[in-house]
Here is the input.
Amino acid sequence: MKWFLGAVLLLIVALVFRVGLVAYAMYTLLGVMLVSRFLARTWSEHLTARRECNRLSANVGETVAVVITIENKGSLPVAWLLLEDLLPRHALIYEPPSLRVSGKRLQLAMFNRRGRKTIHYQLTCNRRGYYQVGPLVLETGDLFGLHRRYRVATEPHFLLVYPQVQPLEGFDIASRRPIGEVRMSYRLFEDPTRVAGVRRYETGDPLNRVHWRATARTGVLHSKVYEPSTVAGATVLLDFHNAALDPRHEPYRSELAVTAAASLANAVFQMGQQVGLVTNGRDAADRIRQEGWDFDIRSRSAAQQAAEMLTASDRLRPLVVETRRGPEQLMRILETLARVEPTDGLNLAQLVTETASRLPRDATVVAILTAVSVETATALGSLRRRGFAVTAILNIFEEREFAEAAGRLLEERIDSRHLKDENSVGTICRAFVTH
Here is the structure.
């Protein structure tokens, strides 16, 4: 617009003062600008694209293939086109990156009339997460650089990478309590397949409870006594508050905590016991659900910003996967752990206060912590005093820091285990089994 205004102003001055050469030059410049503007708009409007991914969910270590097809449906050739399939910055900044790109997702191309071009690249998933792939941003313009047009050609795809699940040594399928004994405060059910003894018949006992052999032998009605059936399992309490995560150790410590939570949930699920998850982290898909996707982006920087997740969150609503059995339970937990991100909302003490009423007393509360403050220890101690079986896994590397954190928990009579590095994930529950 500034070029147009300047050229029009010079043309008016030239006409007033009757400077023919300047007027001719301005006529020429205005013509070139109009033609350039027309070409840039025409090229941009007639370009279409589509993206195809061979999968939208993957495990760590797997590869996702992305194929993008761009087509010029116009009758004019496109002199140049810069195309880029955007990826969020947080997926590329670490070493190794969360998503390693093989191939070119940024290319400069030319198109003939009715021409088509296909680009391929692959994403190697090195770290769990919920990643926005795209949008595809197209940039074109005239040959003189006077006009540029930006266009978002495809909507983004969203890739879910599940956390790593490691087998836990020491888990015995025949064990009734793989993560420590739970003192049941009451009996929930009785198992009619396991007879513990015989007692005298009491008014109200159903007929199927009568022990007919003992009745025939003694001549007095007797009833069966069944063993109590306790529903064992675990509720994983994952602390994902930003204040508890040291930036110097990120993203290693937070990813290690997620790996431990996923591995523990998988082991408990494989044993047929109930399992659940409670965390103060945020769901990485919150931004998309709350804000939607802005398809009308006017610049490359705006498109790059839209491809990013929100950097801060004061979410006050915890993520909860109810503790229960079922074939789909593990998948719910893994999906939640894949998308969980640190938050600035509830700390662990507030999380315990918020969710204590939803925690089943017949499942061990396994807290995975990267730091233990006095407030955190007191909150977990309050759970223990209310009848919950509580244990802690401390995701801390330094022995001294682990000893200090374990000491605070020991004052609340809570045992803790040391999750020092990735190699200790598989052995973290051995002590619970042999205890």
User: Anything to note?
Assistant: The longest strand covers residues 189-200. DSSP finds eleven helices and 21 strands in the chain.
